[in-house]
Design a protein that fits this description.
330 residues; alpha+beta; two-stranded antiparallel sheet
Length: 330
């Protein structure tokens, strides 16, 4: 695979590399006339494991009810690394609202350093179709409720603020979720007032400049992570996870187990006013057979026999008997 660019040089290869074998040129009004985008067929092909419904363009549509479950979760409960997805977490970004958990479906935009010959062709193609000029706002206008605006601005603060307080307000009122921008924002004081979720590389005074749109709803790079349209975005104080839809139900089920385990653990630590047990007697898993049985019965009573059987099956499959759904012990 040809490397698209390096963070150190912000270099870009010939535009043909972007579309060779993976990206399709889309110029029809029905597809928003994006320069490069996955067609519906490609979107379905590359997200074939998505078990949920889809948007008309093929983007996976994780149900709202499951997204709500993620609001109760933390980064420690995302265990997809055991499935080989070891690079889906991004840290090192600035956090707009540290006390807020941001959850939504990824809607992606790729920007690159402007190159006049390519940019002219992009705009000419749109003009020939009777369409307006393409800009980052073309992608913003496609956002829907529950989307997270995920923008690959190649980490370049010199490209100016991709959004300021007005466009950030548009994102917030449209999606009620937020944004992840691997680049800059502007009007930080104004944006901070909204209480929205937001992750960004830095804040600068100038507006967006010297960039061109090269893709909407295509795979993009945020930090060292590849993000697909429709990924579930979970952001907290520690950073941002981009979660393929096929793992969503499993993670929600395991988080329920984790929360019940935490509830039982705290209950035991507080028993008889505290001090009855050492930490290692209870956490991460009790060693005493009577306590193990007590916990398993407590868990079964909370989630019911069917879910309990599924939990036991998962533990056998992952060869982690009695594990806490894979959550990191602390």
């Amino acid at each position: 695979m040809v490397e698209r660019r390096t963070r150190a040089t912000n270099s870009l290869p010939a535009a043909a590399v972007l579309c060779a074998g993976f990206l399709a040129t889309v110029v029809s009004p029905s597809a928003q006339a994006q320069l490069w985008s996955l067609s519906r067929e490609q979107m379905i092909h590359y997200t074939a494991k998505n078990p949920f419904d889809r948007f008309p363009d093929g983007r996976p549509k994780v149900p709202d009810a499951l997204l709500e479950k993620f609001r109760e979760m933390s980064a420690e409960e995302i265990t997809i690394a055991r499935h080989g997805f070891t690079q889906q977490f991004v840290n090192g970004l600035q956090v707009l609202s540290p006390g807020k958990t941001m959850v939504g479906r990824a809607m992606t935009l790729q920007l690159m350093p402007v190159r006049p010959d390519i940019a002219d062709v992009i705009q000419k193609d749109r003009a020939e179709k009777g369409l307006g000029r393409v800009s980052h706002q073309t992608a913003l206008d496609m956002l829907q409720r529950g989307d997270v605006f995920v923008c690959d601005a190649f980490g370049n603060l010199d490209a100016g603020g991709i959004v300021g307080d007005n466009l950030a307000n548009f994102i917030w009122t449209t999606t009620r979720a937020g944004f992840v921008i691997d680049g800059a924002i502007r009007d930080l004081d104004g944006i901070s007032e909204f209480g929205m979720g937001g992750y960004f590389r830095g804040a600068v005074p100038p507006a967006i400049r010297n960039v061109m749109v090269t893709g909407i709803n295509i795979p993009v790079r945020i930090g060292n992570t590849t993000v697909m349209p429709g990924d579930v975005v979970l952001g907290d104080r520690e950073g941002v996870f981009f979660i393929p839809p096929e793992f969503v139900q499993e993670l929600v089920d395991e988080a329920e187990i984790t929360h019940i385990h935490d509830e039982w653990t705290k209950k035991k630590f507080a028993e008889d006013g505290g001090g009855k047990y050492k930490s290692s007697d209870i956490y991460g898993r009790p060693k005493d057979p009577a306590l193990i049985k007590e916990y398993e019965e407590y868990l079964k009573s909370k989630i019911g026999p069917e879910k309990y059987a599924a939990y036991q099956k998962r533990m056998r499959e992952t060869q982690q008997p009695g594990a806490r759904g894979g959550r990191r012990q602390q």
